[in-house]
Amino acid sequence: MADVTVREATVHDCEEIMRLIKELAVHHNEADKVAIDEHVLRRDGFGDTPYFHCLVAEPSTQGTGQQRPLVGYAMYYWTYSPWCGKTCCLEDLFVTKDWRNHGVGTLLWAHVTKTALARECAWVHWVVMDWNQQARDFYHGNGATNWSEKDGRLVYRMTHGTMTTFVNKRLPETA
Ligand SMILES: CC(C)(COP(=O)(O)OP(=O)(O)OC[C@H]1O[C@@H](n2cnc3c(N)ncnc32)[C@H](O)[C@@H]1OP(=O)(O)O)[C@@H](O)C(=O)NCCC(=O)NCCS
């Protein structure tokens, strides 16, 4: 097991978290899709209405002071099921390449799961790319189920342009 500490992110971690978010985007071959920066993270995660929570993994023995390089993060937020009540969405789980296969990902995931249990969440859900077999195996290995396969639910999304077109068309009086 790697010598890391998992803790809640603070506003001072945003630059490091942003670096890891970009690494994950590169892993997905979608580096050009990252449209925010650490200022947005600070505002959205640590303002009056936090839109996400984040746990970070910090090596116990690397770096000095407050600026230790982070080696992983788990971003999550609370969601709600009209049938089952409180639920949790794990948006991102990432461990930087050199630190993989030493238990860091499991540790971050376990901490999010523990927090969700403490909040009495009925489940934790997340999306994984179909080609990401390594991550899929990792999740399966710890008891997670591919819910799309089991339940036939598809993930839908409307992006900004489509949202605007839809609202302008269906609520023209408010445009
Ligand atoms: C998926 C990911 C988060 C896993 O993180 P990780 O730190 O490598 O995960 P762990 O080390 O806890 O577990 C990985 C494997 O190492 C093994 N392992 C755990 N502790 C270990 C240790 N102390 N020593 C050696 N191996 C260990 C685990 O058994 C696991 O094997 P398994 O997948 O066959 O069960 C990481 O690979 C990653 O960031 N990948 C790229 C981004 C990504 O795909 N994220 C998920 C998007 S949905």
TrEMBL record:
<dbReference type="InterPro" id="IPR016181">
    <property type="entry name" value="Acyl_CoA_acyltransferase"/>
</dbReference>
<comment type="similarity">
    <text>Belongs to the acetyltransferase family.</text>
</comment>
<keyword id="KW-0808">Transferase</keyword>
<feature type="domain" description="N-acetyltransferase">
    <location>
        <begin position="4"/>
        <end position="161"/>
    </location>
</feature>
<dbReference type="InterPro" id="IPR051016">
    <property type="entry name" value="Diverse_Substrate_AcTransf"/>
</dbReference>
<dbReference type="InterPro" id="IPR000182">
    <property type="entry name" value="GNAT_dom"/>
</dbReference>
<protein>
    <recommendedName>
        <fullName>N-acetyltransferase domain-containing protein</fullName>
    </recommendedName>
</protein>
<dbReference type="Pfam" id="PF00583">
    <property type="entry name" value="Acetyltransf_1"/>
</dbReference>
<keyword id="KW-0012">Acyltransferase</keyword>
<dbReference type="GO" id="GO:0008080">
    <property type="term" value="F:N-acetyltransferase activity"/>
</dbReference>
